[in-house]
Amino acid sequence: MAGEFGEVLRRLRTAAGLTQEELAERSEVSVRTIRGLETGKRTNPRMTTVQQLAKELALRPREREELLRAAVRRDQDGERPAEPEAEPQAEPEAEPEAEAEPGTEADEDLTGDPADDGPGDPPAPNPSSTARRPAADPHSPSDPAEQLAALVTARWQREEEQRQVQDPFPLPVRWETAPEALTDHWANILRLPAQATARPLDLDGELGEIADAYRRIPSRRLVVLGRSGSGKTILALRFVLDHLRTRGTSEPVPVIFSIGAWDPTTITLRDWLAAQLTRDHPGYAARGRGRESLAAELVESGRILPVLDGFDEIADGLRRPALEALNATTLPLVLTSRPAEYAAAVAETDVLTAAAAIRLTDLTLDDLAAYLPRTTRKPGREDPDANAWDPVLTALREQPPDRPDSPLATVLKTPLMVALARTIYSDTPDHDPACLLDTERFGSPEKLEDHLLDNFIPTVYRHRLHGSSSGGSHPGFDADRARHWLGYLAHHLTGLKTPDLAWWRLGNGLHRSTRTLVTAVLLALAIGLVDGAISFGVNGRVTGALLDASVVGLLAGLMFGFVHWLTYTAKGKQAAPSAVRLQLRRRPGATVWTAGPRLVIGTLGGAVFGFAYGFVVGMVITYAVTSDLSIIVHVGLVDGLVYGSVFGVATGLTFCLLGLLETPLDIDSAVNPRSLLTTNRGTVTTQLLVWAPTFGAVVGFGSGVAVDLLQGSVGPLVWTPEAAALLGVISGLGGAIGYALTLTAWGQWLVLTRIWLPLTGRLPWAVVTFLEDAYQRGVLRQAGAVYQFRHARLQQHLARHHRRAALHDDFIAPL
Description:
This protein has 815 residues and is mainly alpha-helical. It contains 29 helices and 11 strands.
């Protein structure tokens, strides 16, 4: 099929009236390369070369599609795909051909065009690097990387629609090449051999050209710098979609990661990328062809292109080690940051190795004049040319050029502030944007920005939404209460030093001791209620049921509270969502064997818990009969031995069974905050359905066996079948409740986020609905399995407002 591509290229070049030399001069692709492609001597044109030729030939859409189709049609015949593997860490340095003469293609390669297929193509990848890739066929639809590409494309297309990026058209985001002080040596960026002369690349461009600009960088490492609100995240989103649209099957899949949540002192970049990928796509926690997960294999094999958004959001003191960690890898990547934070990290260590850098530029008055009038409602028939923004734009144009920019002119230079101004004044007819020209009221850009941020929340909560993503109707939220709740969430994220609003970490805003205490108290109430209800139903005595419920609830609360403290609080961790589900009908062959370790851990944990429980219960019951300390201790030890053996066996077998039934989530499962919560709730519910009868049956039957085995050796033991059955039922239900509320992410969400935080007025009772509502109103954005505030500037503003209101008691928390 290479001959077909050459024929198509020759025909289109001839139709354009260009010689090979003229096309080479325009496209900066060597004559030798064009001649080789047309004659069929070169059978592997890279996609960037094909796109460059198509651009310079000024092809119509149909002709461009024909050329691209001819270039990639080789894949169907089993030949090497057109697109190179973008793994600069595995690329050998380009070397001049032995027979090259001055002025030939070899000279061009040494002066800034590092590959003979075009100005932006890297040298051929090292074949040995493919040994690190998963063995799956990259052309197969079932290949994990291809499935991930489809999931990422669908997710960010929905997110772009939600953010109204294309309504009515994207704000122009432009950039220029960053200063040399923030860029590595061009010879390193161009991957040139020693002593080669490097020509800097001209990377200036605009929003729709970001993917092409990236492909022109042989090192495949790019830093995007821009001040707050300049459009870095939108540019990253557009890069991912454009790169995926033109991506070859052997190219890595671009995935956006919010790098502000990374702590480089505790986890390596690759491990963190794999963990984030698993969080947003739980199906990739499944085991690959080796011992690692699919997510880890994709990262390690270079099939993921990290788009690291928000370097400036990394906590103070961690940016330098973060940059050092990035320089310790050779991964291709895109990194976004505000200039000051990146420059400060560079000053402490070094620039990002082999990375080119671009800097976003400000919007112009012409950009505003083209955009803002088209965001308002269409004027009436009386004055069809009238527009609410006309007075504002006229005043900005009439500003004397020899005077400093007005506060409004300064503020409207960033897409974020333009978007806020549009929301407040274009989408709300009774708001007149002319008030923004009042320099007495808004004497500085900071005051005007605060005005826009202050009015954003009340504006977006004025209108009632028709429905939620779950299909229900919105209850509507009061703007003042919404501001209070959003302020708490912003303050919560500031305390955690992360931009990610994860439902399983919402309770982490509480003090560690408070989390443990709340968990223990609510658990004691739940288990005590279950125990009292069952005891009353069996014995019919209220006093006995209340006494038994009090003792069992108190001890269970203390025991499970200690387990929670030991598991999470003492280690500073939190329960994370499970990446598996339970399959009751059969054990899938692909499940990783975890039953053995769980049997050991469960047996030891259950034995310790059972001994402590039996020892305390035995002493309490005996104390009500006699005050002889020796008898009390003896009974406590005997009961501890019996309960310890029974609970140890029961817990070990139950944990083992749960491990046998676990299976990874589907690899193509789409994840958003609600679906992840729903999935984990379903997993925990199934665990309870397995735990309660299994644990209860083993405890009930095992207690009788243990009494028979220990009868006589530790003294006469009294145990009836009725007592065994009652213990089994209470233990099954109580143990299941304790496990769910103490050791699972959904249980902690239920205890802290669905009960305690709403009870204390920090969050609404309908937390999920509120978060979805804020997302649809544009206050929050989705980043896989978590929410984030629309912009860090908005998060900071809300957090500051929340702290100020709490300090001065300006707001009474709703209950």
